[in-house]
Write a structure and sequence with these properties.
Two copies of one chain form a homodimer.
Chain A (H helix, E strand, L loop, with lengths): L3 H4 L3 H6 L6 H12 L4 E2 H11 L5 H13 L3 E5 L6 E5 L6 E5 L5 E4 L5 H10 L2 E14 H10 L4
Parallel strand pairs in A: 4-6
Antiparallel strand pairs in A: 1-3, 2-3, 4-5
Chain A binds a DNA duplex (30 and 30 nucleotides) through helix 3 and helix 5.
DNA sequence: AATGCAAATGCAAGGCAGTTGCAAGTAGTG
DNA sequence: CACTACTTGCAACTGCCTTGCATTTGCATT
């Protein structure tokens, strides 16, 4: 009785990749698409469990693995804890600012080092295929506190 | 009966940080100092178990945590697997090239984006305190194979 | 619409990196 | 040397993630 259309929003995409279109896969893709930021498997699991019908955590992981192997999504690792993050592969290059105060993640759209990588490619004996840049610091809100507190690190 | 001198090589340093100088702590610092690259807790554990007297894995982890909290070492996360890496904090800024072919890690000494961070600091409402850059690709040795095989990504 | 089959899923158990509680050992102090 | 607080080993445990297996489901074919 719900959104049959909606549910198969990604059918073509999935079939094109040679995998079946299922309720869970569609839901996961949808969540990732809606989210501004990378999500953990657990976040997806909880949202899905509440929102749609129940889903098993292992299904979430397997689905994410499948998507990652098809390059539909990108898996990365958060720096501080060991949790993996998943986001849609927009095939656009993107970096984030990670606030060490409140752990907020802020996207920056243009890659500040794109051309630098080009230059570097020519200087070193190494075939650069990609890079990951994480920038740490304090966001607008945390700045204030930090200025009154900070000392070490 | 061994290297009493050697063993207390880091005594001063440790005491200065307010922690006791022990056989294990000295040994771990020594290994990290000798190593050109970040090591996992497990690598340290195995080396130490064979080399000096036996050590418990939990001691390795606790020691590494202690060192990290004193900023003697730096903990980071390898991108592909979930293992944490530890290296001496040289207080020098350093980046690595990670070969996705053979997983070799190559150091690059100068930070290619230092001044870029400076520029960025002024452009955005975010107090940058640090950054991490990982560059992926194929090293000299893996390049050859890659050229004959590669296609995607 | 019914059938068949491979792929997808749920469930429960397992694996692995890292953590914790506690008793025993040890460094540093007087 | 004795004392105390910090360290360590040991074993059990946690949390994230994976796997084996029986069941279900998507989808192509009849």
């Amino acid at each position: 009785m719900i959104l049959l259309d909606e549910n198969s929003k990604y059918k073509e995409l999935l079939n094109r990749e040679g995998i079946k279109s299922t309720r869970h896969r569609n839901a996961i893709l949808e969540l990732l698409e809606e989210s501004e930021f990378p999500l953990t498997a657990e976040q997806l699991f909880i949202t899905l469990r509440d929102k749609t019908a129940s889903i098993d955590l292992s299904t979430v992981y397997r689905t994410l693995d499948t998507f990652a192997s098809k390059n539909l999504i990108v898996k990365s690792n958060r720096a501080d804890d060991g949790k993996a993050l998943y986001e849609l592969n927009h095939n656009e290059h993107k970096h984030h600012l990670l606030c060490v105060g409140c752990h907020k993640l802020i996207s920056i759209d243009d890659c500040p080092i794109g051309e630098l990588m080009q230059t570097l490619k020519n200087k070193i004996d190494f075939d650069i295929t990609g890079h990951k840049l994480e920038i740490y610091g304090y966001c607008h809100d945390c700045k204030k506190y930090n200025h009154t507190l900070s000392s070490d690190t």
